[in-house]
Amino acid sequence: MTAEEFAKEFINDIPDRKTKIDDTLTVFSMSVYADDPELKILRKELNKAGYKLILEKPSKKPYEQEWRLVKI
After folding, report:
1. What is the per-residue pLDDT for 23?
2. What is d(CA 9, CA 35) in angstroms, rounded to the nearest whole number?
3. Which residues are registered as beta bridge partners of 55?
């Protein structure tokens, strides 16, 4: 799956989340970072859809970073 495909799928899955978006932290697997190391594509597509990713827990290991998805 390409970074663009992942971004579209991630955005399509947002309405299916059962908890409030602001209360949920997300981590991404290494396969996501392999195609989009800085999550630029994902963040760009999320921005177009009215959302933003905020890094809540930085880490040198990308797969340990925790991100908060917020509606803008």
Report:
1. 66
2. 15
3. 67
